[in-house]
Design brief:
By secondary structure, the chain is mainly β. Helices cover 5% and strands 63% of the residues. A hairpin with a 4-residue loop joins strand 20 and strand 21. The protein is elongated.
């Protein structure tokens, strides 16, 4: 599919401008088929052994180290290290390390980072994506940044000044306008005292949690999950959440632990910037029948069923949330 898109864009470019030169071949900037004049010319095809500069590409450009376009790139641009397109990139731009461009219409892909003005399509990088207005998707292993977001960001840290539609899927999602943040203190049978940080949008937020059990046995716990808010009336809301907890004994012996997955159906009453939440839950824990030890006693409520695969049970929790 990707090759077909590139081919069609290239054919369209060939028909669109008869003044565009057919081929540019460069060793380094200035040492090319047109010398220094290549930076002022448009081409259908450019091959840069090490590096090369042209005005615009309306087809395909391939380079081992560095490609530079002073104008637009329409079609396919590939570099082993760096692409620099001072105009807009329309099509597919890929680099081993970093891409720089004006607005992107299509797919921008880099091994480490992408920098663009606006993105309509997909921006994906190994570490960092930075753009202004994004209509589509940003995907990286670490950090995504946009001025306005209409779409989704996937990364450990996702940041935008405003979110119109969509949101972030990551550990930390910070949005100035259209975002949602909550710090919640909670008490439950499965986590006697807990502290949660929830961030993202009201439609979709992520949850980070730490807690402690005093009884039936002393256990430390950490958790991560996802959730959302469904408003019923002005001060009432439903908060469905899924959280995965990991329990260890208070001697921090990580060789032994217990996991449980909770589906919570919370009901929150909002009073100003404070929310009071009652959260009944259904959980499954990897505690098979006849297993003994402190890590088998994660709740003071008797489970509803237990077999060789694990335990099913109900839980109940109360939360005091500070909203922003």
């Amino acid at each position: 599919m990707k090759k077909a898109i590139i081919f069609l864009i290239s054919i369209g470019a060939l028909k669109g401008n008869a003044q565009t030169k057919p081929v540019h071949i460069s060793v380094v900037q200035g040492l090319s088929t047109q010398g220094n004049q290549s930076k002022n010319s448009d081409y259908f095809f450019s091959f840069n052994l090490f590096s090369g500069t042209v005005n615009s590409i309306k087809g395909v450009e391939i380079g081992s180290i560095y490609n530079q376009n002073n104008g637009d790139m329409t079609g396919f641009q590939s570099s082993g290290l760096v692409n620099m397109t001072k105009g807009n990139a329309k099509g597919y731009q890929t680099a081993g390390i970093v891409n720089f461009s004006g607005s992107v219409f299509g797919l921008q892909e880099a091994g480490i980072s992408n920098f663009a003005k606006d993105v309509v399509g997909i921006q994906t990088a190994g570490i960092v994506n930075i753009a202004q207005d994004v209509k589509g998707v940003q995907f990286s292993s670490l950090y995504n940044q946009a001025r306005t977001l209409k779409g989704f960001q996937f990364g450990i840290v996702n940041v935008a000044d405003s979110v119109d539609k969509g949101g972030g899927i990551g550990l930390i999602n910070l949005y100035k306008r259209g975002g949602y943040r909550e710090v919640e203190l909670s008490a439950a049978d499965y986590q006697n005292i807990g502290l949660s940080f929830k961030n993202g949008t009201k439609t979709f937020y992520t949850i980070l949690n730490v807690g402690y059990n005093f009884k039936p046995h002393s256990l430390f716990s950490t958790g991560a999950g996802i959730g959302g808010i469904l408003h019923l009336k002005q001060i009432w809301a439903i908060k469905p959440e899924i959280i995965w907890y990991n329990y260890v004994t208070d001697d921090f012996n990580f060789n032994s632990n217990t996991h449980s997955s909770h589906f919570k159906f919370g009901l929150m009453k909002r009073v100003g910037k404070v929310g009071l939440t009652l959260s009944p839950s259904l959980y499954f824990a990897n505690i098979p029948r006849n297993l003994e030890g402190d890590l088998t006693k994660i709740s003071s409520i008797k489970p509803i069923s237990q077999n060789k695969n694990g335990r099913w049970g109900f839980g109940i929790g109360l939360g005091l949330a500070f909203l922003k």
